[in-house]
Amino acid sequence: AQSVTQPDIHITVSEGASLELRCNYSYGATPYLFWYVQSPGQGLQLLLKYFSGDTLVQGIKGFEAEFKRSQSSFNLRKPSVHWSDAAEYFCAAKSNAGNNRKLIWGLGTSLAVNP
Amino acid sequence: ETGVTQSPTHLIKTRGQQVTLRCSSQSGHNTVSWYQQALGQGPQFIFQYYREEENGRGNFPPRFSGLQFPNYSSELNVNALELDDSALYLCASLMDGNEQFFGPGTRLTVL
What's the gap between Cα B30 and its chain centre? Predict the structure, then answer.
């Protein structure tokens, strides 16, 4: 079955430190991959996406993600975290076949940032 | 700001009641998806509408139903509300592509 796993439920980092949030997927073929951020009481904002091509993807707010086919992973990174990055982060995937537009979501990783 | 709006922002209902949630898609987007996000969980796909027809459904009972109108705005209807229906309901629109643009959501509380 198709699935997306975010192994870390909660992560705390200090402001200015680097960040890596993990995401693993299980699909028959390489899906389209997304990272979204959700601030408290807010909707979901797309940070970045991977469809094909260069495996290192740049997104908004200084985030990047690296697609690794051999590890079925799409980890999100940021070199220096800001206090405003505290939020819930979701990894999602969608089949690249046919008219299936359903997104499969991970359970999310809650990020706290210490001053 | 995605251009996707949802109403109402918050809603309180009691068990057994019916509720209608509304979504206005981003201009020109002909597809809308609805998701349920329970507290502390990731979004769960409810269904999707493409040009006024349902073209995908998640693992939700028939009391969850929807409509999409000619202007591509959409409604989510839930009948016979249960306590477990309390959640944030998100709609997302897209246009023949793979990126979904989300609205801010409607917070539904069932008492």
Answer: 15
